[in-house]
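=== Structure Prediction Worksheet ===
Name of assembly: unnamed complex
Input type: mixed (protein and possibly other molecules)
Chain count: two
Listed entries:
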Amino acid sequence: MSISAEEVFETANMILRQNLDIRTTTLGINLKDCIDNDFGRFTDNVYQKILKHSLRLIREADKLEIKYGIPIVNKRISVTPISLIMETHCSKQSFVEMAKTLDRAAKDGGIDYIGGFGAFVQKGLTDSDRVLIESLPDVFASSDRVCSFLNVGTNVAGMNLDAINMLGHMLKETASKTKDAVGCAKFVAFANAPEDNPFMAGAYHGIGEPDTSLNIGVSGPGVVHSVVEKNRDCDLTQLSEIIKRTVFKVTRSGELIGRELAKNLNVPFGIVDISLAPTTAQGDSVANIIEAFGIESIGAHGTTMAVALLMDAVKKGGAMASGNVGGLSGTFIPVSEDSGMIEAVRKGALDLNKLEALTSVCSVGLDMFAIPGDTPAETINAIIADELAIGVINNKTTAVRVIPVPGKKAGESVDFGGLLGEAPVMDVNPYSARDFLKRGGRLPAPVTSMRN
Amino acid sequence: MEKELLFITVIGKDRKGIVAKISTLLYEYDINIEDINQKIMDDYFVMIMLVDMKESKQSLERVRAELEKIGDTLQVKIQIQHEDIFKMMHRV
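=== Predicted Assembly ===
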């Protein structure tokens, strides 16, 4: 055999026992060519274009799943940031109508989430951006599969505090209008949002992208956990090496599926996002990898260094394996989507402060965490501003997906079900930054942005 | 015509009839066995077959479903995968 029995077993075992899968295949679609003065015709163009591509994506992805015996868990669509194409139909009602159109196209096409209902506002808001933000609570209340993002900062433009100041109220209203506040799980605020990220809720089809582009997100916390478990006593350099080798293999599977799927769909292949993305399934936790390093519970002192090591090894292994690594490419540490993270919060090992510290060494940010429903809007804004400032100053992507759960107090829990998991409600600092945030304006770009 | 090579992996406890049942199915479906190998790895019985599907008229979907049925009867996990995924993951 050209491949040894050990190698065949390793791959089969990764899929059968360690939850290796292609986490998402996300097809980016440009919607600018759908714009029409007649809003009815405009939404019809959008619906038809998305539906056509969705049906093909599902059909071709299913074929590859059978050929290679690797699960392709999610098939998704990302679109041109909606604020850009709605400039001439700038009313709340039209935005909600557009969201319903996207939702209908996704449902009819068999797509689980459609991303891109968002805007770039790092330096200021257009009328369209403002109306988009104002429409979001109704958008989430009247759709199931639409995801939204807002890029409020970049390392070259600084950060728009006026835009951030709109978010706390928007999120609280969304929370009250959607069951278990689940609408908030579909909104993410970014600094330095990548144009080719295949993961939700932050996926959108960037303006530098071709008409369509296929991006792949691989996964494999279970696979990495398994090799770390087998190497309990090696030093950090060796630990990094074994993770690199494993992530290399995982990424290669994504590269293979991505290339072939793009070819079969006749669309350009974009990138492989090599992020370790956990699920609440047994053995699919990033927190458990950190614990297998030798840390009693994620959140303990020492966790930041451990996450830094993991993150760096993942990137190095992935970079060798694919010519087109992109998107977020790091390690996700969402609270509700990782059984080890949930457990750590419950037992008091992990709090919001440590979580924020961890995001300075890992992609992507404060993700999928619940806070008490009575948290003041300005405190939510301050949490977002803190996290995104880390991204702006350190020239990296950071993001916030925060869920203020009405009626719930710290220590209680909210169950979203499915991939979104279950979020223990976390304590927030009771002191306020109200007067600081009230100043508004823009956080100036850091001096490190002056590179020309 | 070029070969169309796939690997069949069986993981589980060693049982009578694994090879017999799988080879009978492959014979019926015109799938040629190129190589076969079995050993104990990580305390599991592992059998690996390299097969060529170029002459088979069956769809891979059907073959996969039938193999899964055999797996369920014998309480082992059976996977069939195109060889390219192994080449991609294990060869630089």
